[in-house]
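Kindly inspect this today.
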Amino acid sequence: MVRGKKSNASLRRDPSWKYSVQVDIGGAEKTYVYLKCNFCDKVVKGGVTRMKEHLSGSHKNVAPCANVPDKVKEEICAYMKKSITAKHLQQEQFDDRVEQGSYYGSESGKGSSSTIHSRGARGPMDQYMVNPGEDRGQTQMSILDVRQPLEAMFTSTQWLNSAWGKKPEGKEVRRHILNDKFWATVTYAILSTRPLVQVLRLVDAEKKPAMGFIYNAMDEAKELIAHNLGGEEASYREIWDIIDARWEVQLHRHLHAAAYYLNPQFQYSERKSSNPEVKLGLYHCMERLIPDLTVREIADLQLVLFRNREGFFGLHAAKSTIVKRSPVE
């Protein structure tokens, strides 16, 4: 494989190769690389890592070389110190990127397998973050969209070896991310709440006055929730009951029903609501806003013209702008 060749080429840049030679040992384990020291002829099992320890005199995993020149020993020690520093920096920056999300690392050397990205490159957690300033108005990314990258990150050796991966909090998060039951609840939450989020966006929107649309939006949200959950009443009834309770106590007003009735986009739609509460809400508003009985009767007669698209409501200009203009214009 090409990847293996690149790895070997990278290893050959290690200074230990200048002061040792690879040898074949009959009957030895083939999974190990055996190097013979040029200064004492000692054969070291374990490749350049063990050879560096041998030449530097670290006494860590192999006996030190008694004949290594001081200059070579200093060279090997300096190289090992540099490698340790680089590895420590790499780990710290990975931890920072996990913690901060939007961290931008410093440059890595060419051909390196380091996780340190070039300045301006996205860190490992950036792909899971949404910048509300940049993405406002765009389709928001769902956590479901990044399930596979999240699972890949939490099973990576980088995460497992990181400081965060070893903390109880990190282990707890990893346990949830790799649990299918967690993703089932996420799916349920998204399918049942996303339509309601759309209603909230409508209420907060500046482009379209919400009063004439919120009643219909809430009805459509409930229908969409039922559809998202498979259409089985047992799966959505509990959510509907919660919505109805909140709607009646906090949101539903006769004014919403009246605004729905007087909105031509819905009045002339084949899907308009036939719920009696709509017309009831309209008449409650008329009684409160038009105390004079004679004037209220005139308004009621005009409602017939509106409902049947007669008079001004039947003109081509009125029909062609139903969906282009706000009901209050």
